Batch of 4 targets.
Target 1
Amino acid sequence: MAGVNRFTELLFWQKSRTWSKEIFQRTRRDPFALDRRLVVQINDSSESVLANIAEGFGRGTQGEFVQFLGYSLGSLNETQSHLVAAFDRDYLEREDYRALFAQGTEIRKMMVAFMRSMVKTGSGVKHIRKYKSWSDEVWEMYEKFTGKQRPELYRS
């Protein structure tokens, strides 16, 4: 996640957002719009792709981020399955179906490549460096500036 401060800066999140919006717009058209159950399912699952990316990013650890990216991939697969159902029910033209399915595949490839980069040997989740807690850093500054040791209660 080097160089990324917000989940909105992740290209695969941006593409997921666009993909979800395009799916939503198509579900508003008849006859698709009349199949309320499928409309809810496909919109929920496509929204879940970007929501899980955002939630995982905010969890604070690479391990949890990778876990939530996995959930996001599951939602992406679910959305693609709903796209197949929509095509089979003649709610989507062949070209719309192909384009939307291909967008999902592109997002999946980007996410998987990102996940691999996070867990590859020598970096990421497998080699997380131990960082001092904010509390420990404050107490160390206290000890340095006052010359006194922190109370026993606050020692690690």
Target 2
Amino acid sequence: MSAPFSFPSDAAAPRRALLPLVVPPVVLEGRTVRLEPMALEHAPALAALCEDDIFTHFSVVLRTQEDVERYITRALGAAERGTERPFVIVERETGEVLGTTSYLDIQREHRTLEIGWTWLGRRAWRTRVNTECKYLLLCLAFETLGVMRVQLKTDRRNARSRAAIERMGAKFEGILRNHVLVRGGVVRDSAYYGVIDTEWPEVKARLEGFLQQAG
């Protein structure tokens, strides 16, 4: 078998093993939350959380159980195709559903993925929940799945989300202008951030510090 072709200029470029990225359904346990594979049975609990304010900068607005069922069905279809892996966020102490988060845009050949479609019921705002979810997902991505890069993106105007992403140590990579149409035709510019594998130890330490402070 012949060796992979490369140009002389590739000699000093970083390399990663050519191994396919496969993201199986898993349960992730933190101190406060448990991330479970999303299923249609979660629709009533998620629908009970839905308020318009939650989705101010979201691509869609979920209001009814039917909306949530369509949301879940789409995500499960993407999971079947291997491009997404959706989770429901559950409070460990009570078993109460708090919201959702997902791996998106799973690139099997390039070993990259995105964390997104994260939304929380109002009770979980300004708690350790979102930080712990990001920590669990990033640990799995970098330490078990061996991803090369994790991407995060949000509406350019979503100051709260951008501040949270920057606080965790993700690097701002730019604005994709006129990126998508959301909420019935609104033009959205998307702010892109990333964490690469060589940056993960620093980001991990930051997140662990925040979680320790949160008690």
Target 3
Amino acid sequence: MLNPKIRRFLNPTTLLLAALLSGSALALAAPPQPGQPLPELALKDQHDQPWTVSGDTKLVLFAAGRKASNLMQTVLTGQPAGFLASRQAVYLADMSRMPGFVTRTFALPALREMPFVVGVVLDEALLADWPRPDGAVALITLQNGRVNTVSHASTEASLRAALGLVP
């Protein structure tokens, strides 16, 4: 039996307030909409370091799913360190649907060997409403921190073109 002093603090209102103050209930990012500011993202990268989208970013590459991630890897493999930064682009990978064991044992170690930074989403609810074109990378162009366009690249050629690479 709980101490009466503790029990009075464990009522539904107090628990809801604690959840709201913890930030977990406020962490959901709205989907990117043209004309709107890109929702703030405070994530971690593949090295467990803080990751955000800076104000000078022009392109967010959002890969949700294995095919989209493989497409990103294919196009980015062999690019020099700083390649994405030179294009004012960031790579955001949603790994939330991947089993935790696979993420920790295989996916994150593989990403740590890449010469670029990847923002990693591990909470499925966080970006649940973001565009997830089947087998494609979502391309979110920004202008002064506001979403300009939302499109996708489903082929190596279209992703290379979005990154300004020669076909």
Target 4
Amino acid sequence: MSMHADRPVRQLRLVVEAEDYEAALAFYRDVLGLPEQAAFSGGDGARVAILDAGQATLEIANPAQKKMIDEVEVGRQVAPKIRVAFEVDDARATTERLVSAGADEVAPPTVTPWESLNSRLDAPAGLHITVFQELRPLEERQELDGFATDAER
């Protein structure tokens, strides 16, 4: 019996086309710090690198939630339909590193009502990203208003 028998999906892999492959790879691997898990090249200059981003989740938000998050983190509607969020240990230092490496800061690190420190950036490969640092452990965040699974509601 596989240890994933109760989980039909084993991994979330976000595939991003980068016009400037070298710049995107340097930004996400070397500056953000995602370790390279594998890299492949093929004919006609085809190249791909698979970077380990730790645990993956798929966050499904309705339009009202997306609007509220943009208002809290940025103060205006700015995110496209897809935004990529990276949990880090130090949101301020990571944001400064990423901006120094060419990302555009959309909003500086901001403390959210759900007790995280979040910044927004426009980053290489056309990604709109959030860098977030959890300020309280999961057990404490679960006690906050509105923090429950749909099954618990």
